[in-house]
Specification:
Alpha-Beta Plaits, about 425 residues, globular, about 25% helix, five-stranded antiparallel sheet
């Protein structure tokens, strides 16, 4: 076809020979059955080459849109190509919500779940923990449905499936009654407060994000997303762990305008208009950037922070901002939070792969003692040998790959590197 696509950041040019946008399930089934190699492309927000393939690249965004509520089961069934920004207003209008959202509402639901992407909050798991059932097209073009209640291990292996098991076409997600949130930003948190009170700070709201640029001693900002309990909007504390409330809206990256960020200053609003950091109608985050992220046991948070302080002179020149947040443990085999309450260290870099890559190696060396698991959809250079030791169910996932895709139709270079065929 001659069409060449890049990911959202532009650091990956997809090597697919053909790009497809089928308009029906039957057309997708025929496409998958007739392809030798094929991968699904979501919103293109992965910074790694996880979605790449030398064969056929397929978007499911053109399939019929589905938003089907089941109040009795407290679920919503959605087409895989929908984004959270597209789904959330429909849910809210019907009086429902998802428990959590990521910082960007622009990302596709299927891609988010397949990569173990998450939001923030001590009690909030990766967004894939909301999945109660999924439907996908397997290598022969057949439709396979897996559910939390009926398929046990295969389901837990398939939800964060890395796009390696089939083309997901729909998902059923747990829903809860709609709720309101207010958001405060505090600035200039003294670093010693993090050392002494990090666990309390990260537990102080429904969702908490700590931002730093590793250039100065104080932590730049703390974003608190609090549940609204029906009362008014109280004034923020004048001093909070030594930090002070921001005097106006802020962007996570110092110096950038806050026009594309969600409402702050304690103004209550619907869950989907506060839990993300960024508004759906604007370019999210910075736009011209790369990202990496590492998740490790939450009790390692302060030690990991100190370890990274030791290379701050390497981080700062290529860093736009770093974010510290928490994620609850889950039972999804390939989730970076599998069976561990996690702290996540997220890095938004300048868009310069040669400059960033050696810094990633330094970060991974510093975080190795804490068993840091890299985010599948972001940049990392952790060796396959180390990754294999971080996921206890990785051998089971490899068996699931062989069972559902014995010819390796959905494999690519990244999957082959970290989950080699055979064995």
């Amino acid at each position: 076809m001659g069409e060449r696509l890049t990911n959202w950041a532009g650091n990956v040019t997809f090597s697919a020979r053909r790009i497809h946008r089928p308009a029906s399930l039957a057309a997708l089934q025929r496409l998958v059955a007739g392809s030798e190699r094929i991968r699904a492309l979501g919103s293109g927000h992965s910074f790694s080459r996880l979605a790449d393939t030398p064969g056929d690249l397929v978007s499911v965004a053109g399939l019929p849109k589905i938003v089907r509520l089941d109040a009795e089961r407290a679920t919503v069934t959605v087409s895989a190509g929908l984004t959270y920004a597209e789904l959330a207003p429909h849910l809210h209008a019907a009086g429902y919500a998802l428990r959590n959202l990521g910082s960007l509402p622009h990302i596709s639901i299927a891609g988010t779940c397949a990569t173990g992407t998450h939001g923030s909050g001590n009690a909030n798991g990766v967004l894939a923990t909301a999945v109660s059932a999924l439907e996908m097209i397997t290598a022969e073009g057949d439709v396979l449905t897996l559910s939390r209640d009926g398929d046990g291990g295969r389901f837990r292996g398939a939800v964060v499936g890395l796009g390696a098991l089939g083309i997901v076409t729909s998902l059923s997600l747990d829903i809860v009654p709609a709720f309101d949130v207010r958001q405060y930003v505090y600035e200039h948190l003294p670093r010693e407060q993090l050392d002494e009170h990090l666990a309390d700070i990260l537990a102080s709201a429904y969702s908490v994000s700590v931002f730093t640029d590793w250039r100065s001693s104080p932590i730049i900002r703390v974003w608190l997303k609090e549940l609204v309990d029906g009362g008014g909007s109280p004034e923020p504390a004048r001093q909070w762990y030594g930090a002070r409330p921001a005097d106006g809206p802020r962007h996570p990256v110092p110096g950038l305008p806050a026009v594309n960020c969600t409402q702050q200053m304690g103004v209550p609003g619907p869950w989907h208009e506060r839990l993300p950091h960024f508004l759906p109608d604007f370019t999210p985050s910075v736009g011209d950037e790369l990202q990496s992220e590492y998740l490790m046991p939450r009790q390692s948070a302060v030690s990991a922070l100190r370890a990274l302080d030791g290379i701050r002179d390497r981080l700062a020149p290529v860093l736009q901002v770093a974010e510290i947040r928490t994620v609850a443990a889950d039972e999804l085999w390939m989730s970076p939070s599998y069976q561990q309450d996690s702290v996540a260290f997220h890095f938004t870099w300048i868009n310069d792969v040669p400059a960033v890559t050696p810094v990633l190696a330094g970060i991974e060396a510093q975080l190795a003692p804490f068993g840091a698991r890299p985010h599948w959809g972001k940049l990392f250079c952790t060796s396959p040998e180390i990754v294999s030791g971080l996921y206890g169910r990785l051998p089971d996932f490899r068996r699931l790959l062989r069972d559902l895709d014995p010819a390796g139709k959905f494999r690519n270079e990244l999957v082959d590197t970290y989950l080699p065929p055979g064995g």
